[in-house]
């Protein structure tokens, strides 16, 4: 009794992969199927159908085996005519997909693409690329070109990636991921936009073409601005798009991501929270949001975010980074394990590399931190990877490399006050460079008067050179406009250093009123209270000494285990 092949096709079309898989086992093992010596195309088609079912169940290695066996049968099938063997986007409703196959005509290009998708899913880019390059360029569909562009990019064959992605935009200007990828690969907005008009006749816009092409152009320009580190220009263009498309979750997330990169943390948090209020099941960039909550010491929101993400999909790299952020203060090694798990899932996930770098710094491994920050930088240079590199090199006493990394940041982001401050930080590390550091901090403040990081660094420099009065007047001037806990903490530290303990107490208390979770304020206040009692704040408590002994014992037990 023959198993109905069209029923498997129907099950695949309806996404019933488990049923299709079970039925496919009957199909390929039936007595009729085994009499395939004279009909190799029948056996090949059966194997492809079983492969499609396995792919749908995410059993990629088994699907790969089925497709490769099908290709062996393809070799003995007489070559079809060019017309029947070449699929197009309009003529095949089930082409260019692992769960699709034109049963009436065996198409080797389609089977090769299915093999490519299996290799791609298994992160074997070299094998995927070898398979894709075996498909004639004229036989490649839109989806094939997009996947090929991604594989070339992951393999760092940027010129070939650009060529494939441009072909995608010639087919349709609405492939936004191709626009973003081209921008990140250094293609100019003008060149990207020049590809749009070529496809306006073959792709019908859902509304007025002039209006749609205008917002598409703005989108391309915004992505190019961000890719070239012109964050201000990118934010302006995204804000314009947000007015045209209010409550657009994608645009809100893009704006929040850029704000996080340039250190506008409060604005970024507001936009991340607005995006989550629209779509509470968001995963995109939620690890970036988690990092911001950690900076703000908002542990309650961070705990809730991680809980929500785990309930949505615990297998995503964003969840691993969020867990790493959550565990950073409690158990740095466990946090590092989560960051490494993220990169096993997706080795191109930038927040994973950045988190890994900062954890290595906390664990006293600046050499490993350099490797992690460099990996993040190769994927997309941003301020955080430059900051991490500078800190790592300074920890290694490599001032020359630190200065080079800081200057590299300044060159990449000439309009960034934070990049200027980074160069100042390197010069401030040695007494001979403090005058240069002062100039860079002042330049950063002229460029961005509200940049508290530069104001705090300049105040620190004044204190280091004994100009406590200047430090106090600078910080008090900023306090008039910005009620920020970090300003109060710095003022308290300056007052404590000059033995003005009551004033220091007042500012630590003010900092905790603004941010009750501020660790620096809590530690500073604890130290100050000891000073006010006449106790040496650096002397270890009796309980702390006992804790150290217990920790040593625990370590010995761990070694024995």
TrEMBL record:
Positions with biased composition (Acidic residues): 538-561
TPR repeats: 485-518
One GO location term (cellular component): anaphase-promoting complex
Alphabetical keyword list: TPR repeat
Pfam family, one: TPR_19
Region (Disordered) residue spans: 83-102, 523-561
InterPro entries listed in its UniProt record: TPR-like_helical_dom_sf (IPR011990), TPR_rpt (IPR019734)
Compositional bias annotation for Basic and acidic residues: 523-536
Organism encoding this protein: Stephania yunnanensis
GO biological process: cell division; positive regulation of mitotic metaphase/anaphase transition; protein ubiquitination
Protein name, entry field: Anaphase-promoting complex subunit 7
Bias kind Low complexity: ranges: 83-100
Highest taxon above the source species: Eukaryota
